[in-house]
Amino acid sequence: MKPPPFEYRSAHDSTETVELLTEYGDDAKILAGGQSLVPLMNFRMARPSVLIDINQTQDMTGIREDDGHLVIGAMARQRVLERDPTAGVAVPLLPAALAHTGHTTNRNRGTFGGSLAHADPAAELPALLVAMGGELTVKGPSGTRIVPAEDFFLAPLTTTLAYNEILVSARLPRLPSGTGTAVEELARRHGDFAIVSVMAAVHLDSNGRADLVRLAAGGVDSTPIRLHEAESVLSGGTLDETSIDAAATAAADASHPVDDVHGTASYRRDMVRVLVARAIRSAIANR
């Protein structure tokens, strides 16, 4: 199928994008990488009357470090980000998560910000942002605002973005040297959306105690969820099998999956328990 007719507009920076969004309102959609929007339009599941192409914007690209954070422009291509040495050193969880994000062809066009704004609760990048305690910079007619990742995602395919706001960039705290990271995912096949995914980052102090633990899961709630209860079980202690199993149980108890064609809620909850334990062990091994 082909999409219904639409008007095409091209923006050259974030300010012009906001102006166009304000002008056209809910009738407009942003075209970035197009890996989600174009299929939806072809199936007539999305019918925007105006497409605002932001591929020519110059102020929403780039990957850089700033004051202990990795700053990623919303228009950074996923494949570029996956291979960027600065990003890989600062946040090694990023290339690991991106390796599960679709296929190389998708990542060549797909954008970092596009995946976040699309807000699929099973997608890897939203779960990663939540795990890392990232912040998103949003621009609208009144200027910019900073939104914590856990507050950005409201429901499936729904974010805190107003109709005339654009996601400009995201900030992730740099992980300390020696942090182990892991991504564990259950999917029908590699590159598919996750049935359950778990992101983990673990750092141990000189006494072998966990002084940094970051855990999040995707595909098990209406949004990606930070597993605070599981983190609390591990923080400050030695990561033995007893504490790992307790953290995995806490994570499963905190998830609220639903039944669907890919699995029952109880199956997903069991997989959270399995994958959290596996991710923690892998993160420790990868330090």
From TrEMBL:
Keywords: FAD, Flavoprotein, Oxidoreductase. The keyword Oxidoreductase applies. Gene3D superfamilies: 3.30.465.10, CO dehydrogenase flavoprotein, C-terminal domain, Uridine Diphospho-n-acetylenolpyruvylglucosamine Reductase, domain 2. InterPro entries: CO_DH_flav_C (IPR005107), CO_DH_flav_C_dom_sf (IPR036683), Diverse_Substr_Oxidored (IPR051312), FAD-bd_PCMH (IPR016166), FAD-bd_PCMH-like_sf (IPR036318), FAD-bd_PCMH_sub1 (IPR016167), FAD-bd_PCMH_sub2 (IPR016169), Mopterin_DH_FAD-bd (IPR002346). It comes from the Bacteria. Residues 1-177 form the FAD-binding PCMH-type domain. This is Xanthine dehydrogenase family protein subunit M. It comes from Prauserella halophila. The lineage of its organism: Bacteria, Bacillati, Actinomycetota, Actinomycetes, Pseudonocardiales.
